Amino acid sequence: MKKTQVALAALALVASSAAMADGVTLYGSADASVITGGSTTSFDGGGGYTTSLFGIRGSEDLGGGLKASFNLESGVNLANGGIGGGGGGMAGLFNRAANVSLGNEAIGITLGNQISIVVGDSFTGATAGAGDNVNVPAVIRLLGGTPGSVVHAGGSLSTTTNRTSSAFFIPDAVTLRASGAGLTFKIQSRTSSTSSTNSGYTAFTLSGSAGGVNLAAGQQKSSGFVATGQADDYTTTFVAGNTKIGDIGVNAAFARNSGLVDASTAIIGASYSISEAFGVGALYARGTAATGNQTSINARYSLSKSTVVYATVSQFTLAGAGGVFSNTGNGGIGATAKSVTSVGVSHSF
Hints:
Elements: H1 2-18, E1 24-37, E2 40-44, E3 53-63, E4 66-77, E5 82-83, E6 97-103, E7 107-115, H2 117-122, H3 132-142, E8 169-170, E9 173-180, E10 183-190, E11 200-210, E12 213-223, E13 226-227, E14 230-231, E15 234-245, E16 248-259, E17 263-273, E18 278-286, E19 294-302, E20 307-316, E21 339-348
Antiparallel strand pairs: 1-2, 1-3, 1-21, 3-4, 4-5, 4-6, 6-7, 7-8, 7-9, 9-10, 10-11, 11-12, 12-15, 13-14, 15-16, 16-17, 17-18, 18-19, 19-20, 20-21
């Protein structure tokens, strides 16, 4: 605890001086909600609309269009002030991002802990929800996993699941990017992997926009870790998109999961802004036999550019499948829950 307090104090000191330097930004969000489901009511301090987090990012212009940049980001659990916020089982201070990048508009490289590019680009097909407690569970179902034992991302051994504990974020990662003609191609790999303790991870994505349609496609593979004599190899191939038809936003995604999880999964959704401040949405996600399907409706009201109040109701086809409702695992619900309601406030800075 003392180490964490010292680290946070040092971070505050660095942030206060760094904020005065060019190209360095302190950012974050504080999001808290009350979740009810399965005769249980709990507090989720990890984020229902936006993930609760704080971070520092910055860049330096090296000339000739070349820039160096960094990103340090930590999830926060507002319930107790501890580390949280969807860090995927990694307990370190900067559990969501700790990386450095070098590149220009055409090419670039990022080194360090970072989000899976497939997870990130999958959200192109999950835009209808009122935030994380709709979109994150939908993407989890799309990619065939659960928050506690996601096998589609390389990470360290989890003693409780015999799978990777790293969920959405890839430690020891190297990501290469090439951009041009309105398209961005990325390839990502985990450099440290041994079959006895953790899994390897490779992925590629292609994304871009044309005629008001945003599209992304790609593939990821987790391999090398063996549990109970059977390889935990896992592959996901996906395509996702969103656009607007008049005043209605529509989104969809499809994924083919094979290997340890063998299933075709999908997302479809729509959103509508009733006014500049008030919007509603609905989303359906078809998951695996283990996670079931999800149907969500939501509403959000913007009190300002930075503050949003929101409400979400989700229905699941499996009892207990609502356990993937809280995107951070910070807010628990009843094991028998099929219907889950969340009401909260989010403020970003």
